[in-house]
Structures
1.
Amino acid sequence: MSQPIFFAHANGFPSATYGKLFAALAPDYHVQHLPQHGHDPRFPVDDNWQNLVDELLHHLALQPQPVWGVGHSLGGVLHLHAALRRPDLYRGVVMLDSPVLTRADQWLLRIAKRLGFIDRITPAGRTLGRRSEFEDRDSARQYFAGKSLFRQFDPECLDAYIEHGLLEQQQKLQLRFDPATEISIYRSIPHTSPAPARHLQVPLAMVCGERSDVIRRHHTFTVRGMPRGEFHSVPGGHMFPLERPADTASLLKGLFDRWGQA
């Protein structure tokens, strides 16, 4: 019988973009997910992602058994905060290029919000004014393939983003993930936590891409200092789950097999 994974995506990347990763986890693991976080009017984006965590917990509570929580970037932080609040809903958590923030990180974010320079220390500034409309899929593919964020994507993952990340509107293609919502998520990045990460009651692994500019050395010390925390580094950048989906699936299977036997 397959084990349940609940996956949470990175900001701006609908879950269907990760289809190749999900397929590589089958048949041993069955992946559940929301199509897009932050788009349910019952859970609008708010400061510190409180409503986004509530949204995730709402769906986790409907699952028939505790899950392995896997999240990429935004999704990893959501799972960490959800597991700190409701550890009974989890078997373990894996954060894919998501940092476990320190008090110093949280202090900096709080000041950045208060003084108005949060766009300079999150991707919000780069997201402002980004192209969001395309004539057809070929022009969209050419545009995204030329961007550094997408340059190392597995070809099938890039195809999946073109297929599922765009929506036909008035004879043109527009980003399915609302750009205003994406920016709002970046600007409301948590400067608080439900509890210190060291209080997490389930296993946690933070996995960093070797070329990532998101995970810093002090983040690795933080997770290694957790009673059930561990750190792993893998080839690739911040988007490694979409650059190397098969390798990411193998890593996840190895973690869950080991944790399940502990």
2.
Amino acid sequence: MSEALSREELRSLFLFEHLSEPQLDWVAEHVVLEHYTGGTTIIREGDPATCFYLLLSGALRMTRLVGGNEVETVRSDQRGAYVGATQFFVGQEGEQRYAGSVHAVSDLTFLTLPAEPFAAQFRSWFPMATHLLEGMYLGWRNSDAVIGSRRRLLALGELSAGLTHELNNPAAAAVRATASLRERVAGMRHKLALLAKKDIDPDLLQQLLDVQERLVGQVASAPKLTAMQASDREDEVSDWLDGHDVDRGWDIANIFVSAGLTAESMDHVLESVGENFLDASVRWLAYALETEMLMGEIEDSTTRISALVGAAKQYSQMDRAPHQWIDVHEGLDSTLVMLTGKLGEGIKVVKDYDRTLPTIPAYGGELNQVWTNLIDNAVGAMGEEGTLTLRTSRVDDRVVVEIGDSGSGIPDEVRQRIFEPFFTTKPVGEGTGLGLDISWRIVVERHHGDLRVTSEPGDTRFEVLLPLTEQASL
């Protein structure tokens, strides 16, 4: 090899610190030091796994292809971190391949060992350990494939159910408004035909059209009335219509009130069209106003659908890079949308956002998983009713996201263990005990942040602290 490493240098790497001197001599005879400049791709996913790599200096990042997109899975600058043919000890038929790609973030140096000779030597050094590791790895891989697939399907089903429920409401409203709109347009054509039969003066028709445009323009700015105010105003407009011999004026009074008109406004209509054409003109105007309001309903409904689709895209991060500068509020809001189906009528949501917070470097999709776990647990702790609080703030060089609930609280003996893998307080079959463990690893290990919890009856708060600046080993 071009550069020799002493036993002491090899023993300084945590993987080799307990090897015997003959074992260290074998490693020293077979290792090769390889240097790479920043930006270089060292390993490509799917290539034959021929080498076992240990990082001596510099920083690396690992990626995998998911659905045709490159997803970053690890960044590390830890001396002794190993990549490449990490399953060299597994005796499998056929050629092993690299499970991911490795790229140099900065100039770095690897110590490399050829995978096949290293595997043979490893089996001779540690035969029992090799069998245990091989069995553990294959058992984990098989069970993870089955359980992971089932868990993803269940999570997808729950989120899809909530999203479908939310989409159904505006979609149904748009369908109803469209059907009503068709009827109103047909009514407008009929009333226009009646006016034409009466040989209406062209100047008067133009005045009527001007009145229509003016009234339609007022619909968007119509004041919001209480039920009592609307009832009183409908009575006034209905009385005005009855007083001017408009047939069944009470039937259309609510349309004029919803459009923001008053009895005084109806006087202006009378001045423009006169008594002779008032009945047909008023009904034509009612159709025009209702048509405008129905189109507003359709616009609101389709805008809501578009917003829900946008929230789903933001939540899944399907059109974004895995690691980017993000606004935590977007992730929180999209998660709330996806979990709407679980937020019953008795759950009040309070948002206390600090909108001056800057964007932060993070894996947006993974943080959305954290928000999902924490909000889902908070809702579950409250049952049918309570207050869910989402609060953001800044403490020194960190963004703080606080998710609180008004549930019964977490007992001290449970609070000491809630971040342990597979620990759950839920009945058998209802919880895996992995939600908070995964959240802990995403926040602490992936983002170099912190995840804390304080709890007393009626006030449980999880605090997620995330760094404002990019970390070397995100």
3.
Amino acid sequence: MTEPQLGDFGLTKIRGLAGAFVNFGQWFVGDFAPVQHALVYVGDGWVVQAMPSGAELIRLEDASPVVKWSTGLIPMWEEDREVICREAEALVGTPYSFLDYVSIALERLGIRPRWVLERVAMSGHLICSQLVCEAYRRAGVELFPGKFPGDQTPGDLWNLLKNLESADV
């Protein structure tokens, strides 16, 4: 397992009903992956992750085991990494919304009404993959250029890393 650098994101598995729910959702929208959760490494053994109780700063050892880190795959300056960490920490306490999963599904099905998109954009709520994308976006690092930042799942992040790995080969 690669040691994470500041600002790297990690992808994990979630056990139980929550993991099964996310697995089904990712399969339903066409981005099934062996991971169901994402978090940002902010240094000194700490990560920020979105949870149903709100985004939290926890010890990495208390998080689900990371299956894959973004380490070495996303080119960034050291300053970008520091900003990602600062922005991830600023998102601690951000509420979570299961409606965002519905919005992603509707977008993938091509039937999302504008009011749903606007609700997600204005809500200030973030699921785990949105938290990762938002921290990166605030640092000027676009993981999915040209796409609405609220439309990414952990599966999208997994596929991004897989594509970056295969491009390096």
4.
Amino acid sequence: MLILIAGPYRSGTGDDPAKMAANLNHLESASWPIFKKGHVPMIGEWVALPIWHTAGGSTVGDDLYEKVLHPTAGRLLKHCDAVLRLAGDSKGADNDVRIARERGIPVFFSVDDIPAAA
């Protein structure tokens, strides 16, 4: 499965780059356990941030940021087989869960709940 890891990235950081980097690091911490189970982990920021930067983005929360970050996750969810929702307040991650449920995509709340690949 291609599994989107969803959780806080910008939320609660006050746009502090160090706090955002720590949040990304936390999201990434789930990637190895997912991979060990035989799946491919995906994080929306892995895709969205390079797009935003190459499009000329420079200020977190600017119009371009808003046009790229959350819509990227929505587009990725068209290709994902599941979502892993990590704990923590996050409007974007909550939206990912909402989209996944609307599309009938399984949502897991623990890596332990993700079945191993056949």
